[in-house]
Write a structure and sequence with these properties.
mainly beta, 22-stranded antiparallel β-barrel, 39 strands, 8% helix, 51% strand
Amino acid sequence: MNISYILQKGKNKQWLQILIISIICVNSYASEIETTNSVISPYAIVSAGDRVINSDELKKASLTNLWDAIQILEPSLKDESQDIYGDMPGYLPSSVSIRGKKIWSTNIDNPYLPLFIIDGARVPLRQAMNLDINDIDKIIIYKDAASLSRYGIYGANGVIEFITQKPQTGKIKINYLFDAIIQNADLNSHKVIDEYAQKEVHTDWLQQPIQTAFQHRHKINIEGGDEYVKYKFSTRFSPSGNGVMKKSKNDILGLNSYIEYNFKALHISNDIVFNQIKGHASNYGTYDYYRQLNPEWKATDETGIPYTVLNENETTQCINPVYEATLGSFDKTKSNEIYDNLNLRLSLKKGFTIDGSFAFVRETNQHDIFISPSSGLYHNVESGSNIGRYDILRENSLSFEASLALQYQKHIKKSNIGVSAGVRTFSGKYYDEAYAGIGIPTDRMAYVSFTKSYDTLNMATAHREYDRTLQSILSGHYTYDNRYGLRASINYNRSSLLSTEERNAWFYNTSIYWNIHNEAFMKNSGISRFILNASIGTTGGIGFSDDDYNVTYKSDIGNEYIYNYYLIGSSIQSMPNRNIKWHTINNRNLSLLFDYKKISLAFNYYNNLTKNIIILDLLPLSTGYENSISNGGEIRNEGIEFYLHTKIIENLKGWSLSAFISGMHNHNKIEKVPDYFASKYNSTVRNNYLQYAKQYHRLSELHENRPLNTIYKYSESHIDKDGQDILDGTPSYIGSTDDKFRGNLGLTLQYKQWWINTIVNCSLGGYTYDWFNLLPIGDNFYSKNNCFSLSSLQLGYSFTPEICSKMHMRALTLALSGNNLVRTSSAKTAKGILYPYARTMAFSLRITF
């Protein structure tokens, strides 16, 4: 096996998006050290180092976009892919780190994402991203060592759980929520290439695909109930989810039904959600194409008819995106999501409780791309050829998840003892297929069934993946006099994702805490909370696939043996390693929580070491293979996080003013990388750097005592026999794309029924690439990246109950909000490469009847 193979295997989906042109409440950490909830239940234990963001905090960050709100409020979370995709409608992140990256990647197409959970059930990324911010009661970002160990082989990249709002007891209540949203593109970081900067402008290409986008969203909730039965039914629809590039959109239709039944010791609830999402990429292609177009070129002739190609009389011709947008070409998606989550709790006598759950998640995704036979791609192609193309990609997932836990609680004088034992099973199936047909007579026959033949140059692909996992967790806690506490748990995992000889994985955690504020000497001190918590634990992740530990064969297509009929040979793809293990993260966390009068402080120190990261080992010549996949790398992430909130003015003649500030610093360092693997990996980086840079993937060499996301500068390069640039010389360390500090500052001012919120974010000390200067030679391909943004600004008014009652309403709120209105950066490089970032203004109406 070689690194080049590892880097390239997998599904490269980027071409699908470029083919057409080819083309303020308190921001809180855990307020108490909770010990009473079941480790398997949907509302699992929240530890001192975890982050809890409630509904009010989220809406102060954004009234319309859940993912933006999380990024604004949580400094330790970094979406590393959004600078490429900007504010693309239906955006799905592909690289999200919490407290730094834990492993290096040997396959750039594999996403690096946390585990997403809704009310205790695992869900796919798309379903988490499609959640409505108005349905969220709170979000828990699990970061503490004691919390992550509960998730075993799934917890390596962190865990984000969304707890949805449940109906309240009372008379029937009807809520109507309306948002009118206007977006305009933020093009401050974009410019044409330098050689065109002084040319006469006939066409402002950067403005050609841009529009001011208008969206409107509607949501209706009906809820109510009594002490026995509660219910909630809702529907939402966004029929005009337009983006800032013309003809791009993402429309959502959602239905939800929640029923809850309580009788004596029995609690049963069932939540069913259905979403349908229809997306359409811009017919103008991806935005990176426009910066290379000469402003002297005209898009249309004197009569307003677009040219098929630009610069037609010269040797170098470019496709005219204005012409392409007039054709029937399209890039569209359709997704259907079904989610059913059943929960049961039975409270028995003598301190025993049984918790059970069953979740069913189904997702189907259809992705169709049609290139018109009239496209400029075929401008010089002879008539009668197989012009026109139709690509199909289908992705489907189906999962079942069930859990059962028994919990016991006992109070003995000043002591509180608890034990919980539970099992969780997960069964998931993921499958996709992709193929293409070529040769379509006309736009009116835009479907694969009308194509003349399959695309013989691009092989059809299909993948099937299965996940069968059993987790068993045993935990216990002891508290004395509500002052001193100890918690511990062990987690056994057996999974089909693990290798044949290492199919059983064990994880543990233990933590101790001291509620100092409950000590006798703290009485009458004014300190309402003073907690010290220390925890250690392990969690894991899987950085390999089944063909790394199973013998798999690869057909030798194109090398047929002919003897009356064709025979296609095959060979073993790589030397498997049946003893390969998961990578383990040893987490250590020290937390301090402190409240004094109007001041709240949370501080966290963490030191996390990832072991057994995937490497390649050199094999003896007698095996017939150069190397085999193995374990052996180590990466450390060490850092601090803080959060400070204060109430500056509290109800002084109707005025209130509060503020918060939070931030984090993380130091990432490669502790161990074996020499043979480092040599192979770094050689592959140098040989393939330009190839991946063109796809907006920057590869970085691995060197001990350096950060994982390091930018290196090379002294020279040479052209190989295939015309590829190969990097030479000893690399010089420039810096890391990781920020040295990330943080935010928020203010909330309230006067009677009026309120104003604002949040400012910053990131300091990191570097960034210039994505259009491809070769890492000289000083033009990178720059310092200190960023500031006015992330959120809101003005709102809540009508008094007396006024509402006159209008036959229970509540009425109006709000104006803006997100990302100002972005500044010391880096003079483009951001929002394939799709621009947007400034968002929204008018929001909330009515309760």
